[in-house]
Amino acid sequence: MKNKLLIAGLITLASVSAVAKNKVVYGIDNRFEISNSPYSGLKKSVAGMVDKYSIKEVKNEKGEVLSHEIKYYGDLTTYQGRKTCDDMQFREQPTAASCTGFLIAEDMLVTAGHCVVRRGQKVENKQTYSCKNNKWVFGYETASEKDGKLKFAKDDVYECAEVIAGEYSELRDYAIVKLTKKTVGKTPVKLDAEKDNYKKGEDIFVVGHPSGLPMKIAAGAEVMVNQDESRFLTNLDTFAGNSGSPIFNFWGDVIGILVSGETDYYYDYTRGCMAVNKCDDYDKACNRAYTGKARGETGTKISLVLEALKKDKEKKDKKEVVQKIEEVIEEIEVEEVEEIEVEIEL
Questions:
Q1: I need a labelling partner for 113 at 20 to 30 A (CA). Which of 60, 72, 342, 346 fits?
Q2: Domain at 4-306, CATH class
Q3: Which pTM does this prediction carry?
Q4: Beta carbons of 223 and 199 less than 8 angstroms apart
Q5: 339 band by pLDDT with thresholds 50, 70 and 90
């Protein structure tokens, strides 16, 4: 049923008028432009992580920010210093993003832990190196490229204030990012941690920036293995740059975060160029695979994010209670001092 969601999506479309760790293509490459899909509204929910120093603010005479632009960026005509094959899909499109994230509140987004946290780290309320040196760009699509630049509206670019909670280990790979201000005109996604989402054969799709490309949707995939309490395996067509991408269930709710997978590209000696690594399916043969068979693309279950949010809220509530107690104590002490002063005057 690899193409079920893709076909359904195209039918729907016709009726209404598709730093990171390695990933790969399973069977047919099911990636297509988000703007050409019935899910184009997700452009307001999904963002790409871009080096902050490559983004220029366009200001008026008063110094007010009017828009943003990126002048220098790469493409997929080469990969790791080698020419890519001429028939590679999207090879001439820009590659500006290193990771993907998705909005869960007006000023909060989720991404893969390895996008903003070092391996082996677990952080809370910390501005990490990656947090400090990258920005989050919404609406990065093919239409963003104009006159040799990538152009974005004033309210499409946001900075990271801190990582509220994040982990990067073999079993746990997620991060919750606090933005420096509330987003404008953006739409948080709905999260769903129900266990039924991870049953083998459940239909899923992913939205993000494969290899740093403008936003793509990859449908026609399924949950392959409910691995453990924190992870599940899929046959999604994803690449580095998709790290942090939201994995949606059939109903359009986010059930996980894309974090890792097979090798993206390999050198085709017959053609003398870098080609997309294709696998027949999960646990089937690939052009190139670490274990001889496709291991699948790993998703972090969204329950880890919900647990971290709950813990953060409890910590803030506790801090607020302590603060109120301190304020009461301070008021009592002030009243006692005033009472003593009155007695002395008498």
A1: 72
A2: mainly beta
A3: 0.85
A4: yes
A5: low
- Beta bridge partners, 89, equal none
Domain ranges across the chain: 4-306
Asked if residues 209 and 199 have their Cβ atoms less than 8 Å apart, the reply is no
Report which secondary-structure segment, H or E, holds 56: strand 55-59
Token representation of residue 38: 């019935």
Taking a C-beta distance cutoff of 8 angstroms, is the pair 247, 42 a contact? no
Asked whether the beta carbons of 221 and 233 are under 8 A apart, the reply is: no
Rounded distance, CA 184 to CA 95, Å? 25
DSSP state letter for 147: T
If you write DSSP's letter for every residue of 153-196 in order, what string do you get? EGGGEEEEEEEEEEEESSS-EEEEEEESS--SS--PPPB---GG
Residue 14 binned pLDDT confidence (cut-offs 50, 70, 90): very low
Q: Copy the structure tokens of residue 227.
A: 């691995």
Length of the chain: 346
Q: Give dist(CA 42, CA 34) in Å, integer.
A: 8
